[in-house]
Amino acid sequence: MKRMLQGILLFTLICLSVTTIAFAQVKLTMGSWRTEDREFYEKVIEAFRKTHPDIEISYEPTKNTEYNTTLNIALQTGTGPDIIHLRPYTPGIQLAEAGYLEPLDGNIAGLEQYADSTLIASRAPDGRIYGVPAKFSSIQIFYNKKLFAQYNLQEPQTWDELIQIAETLKQNNVTPFAFGSKDGWILALTHAAFGPTFYGGNEFVEKILKGETNFTSPEFVKSVQIMKDLAAYFPKFYTGLGVEEMRTLFTTEQAAMFVEGDWEIAVLRKENPNLDFDCFPIPSATGGKPTVSTWVDASYAVNAHSKNKEAALKFVEFLATKEFGTMVSEDLHSIPTIPGIEASDPLIAKILKYATDPETSTPYMIVVYFNQGNPSTKTEFQNLVQGMYLDQLTPEQVAEGTQKSADTWFKPAAQ
């Protein structure tokens, strides 16, 4: 009897041991610059673990302005995250070329659903795909509905109407635009909002890629001049304000308009749940259609040197499903890259309409096509615009400096 009990006990211990091994936890880390989206990604991880309980994922974001440097150092020292929130286009592709990323085509399902124009955000020169497109982003003007109603203002249909709105607000001691030039990336983004209606949108992009025009053209100079002219409607001491201060001006209703990406919707709602706001595209200065600059805003990649590569690939594959696409729309309040996802949020549905319409959508040109060089042409442009706002440079000098940077690496398609 004693031996029988010992046998049963031994069998039970073996079963428990096998069960423990079967459900052993694989622990992954996910790097990102989206500190604001922690709650969303933890929800995504929870959804993934319903079918993969053996995989734990820790979301570990870094401050936006420090992410690139932090990630590069981590990858160089072999301590990079298993899953990488990849900057779109050139910065991400450079990591692939350096051997830090695992090719995804052939390793995960779901990539076939994306358009080629979407996949270029993470397609390297070798033709391989290194990232699952995260989401589309767009730039528009958010506005305070209460302040607009207070001064009988309507969404502008022309550029002149937008300027008249800004004048009315200024005359009533309301800051028209929540803006600051301290953070360089905001300057490139703001120009991507206002610039296309002056330099010619898609037509200009096609010409510059073919070498038929360049950044010193009168229309591009005009697009930079407009950035300077709008300073009349910015807050006092705007050169010392960063994006957090800009956001605070808008959420505390001190400023009526806020030029930003769609990712701000969730952040604005969280910071001030009572804020009643809407958005509109950039009205045309020439009587044409409004414009909305769009791009693939990051992708999800797998560290080629991850010790748990198989588990990381499973998670990235989940990010190519309609379940995740729906979460992007409904929980992150952003534009999913996965086709066929509709938005129930009226604000997201409105943005989706403009962002996917070829007559209004235009690429975020300097991110999609001019983010190369050392420093990149995008970085150089941002620095030059900062100099313009400090009255150190003219719009013509900004344009000339931008072209000088592009000349160091860019080869037009016609050449």
From TrEMBL:
Keyword Transport: yes
Molecular function as annotated in GO: maltose binding
Record keywords: Signal, Transport
GO cellular component term of the entry, any: ATP-binding cassette (ABC) transporter complex, substrate-binding subunit-containing
One annotated GO biological process: maltose transport
Coiled-coil region list: none
Superkingdom in the source lineage: Bacteria
Signal peptide bounds: 1-24
InterPro entries reported in the protein's UniProt record: SBP
UniProt similarity note: Belongs to the bacterial solute-binding protein 1 family.
Name under which the protein is recorded: ABC transporter extracellular solute-binding protein
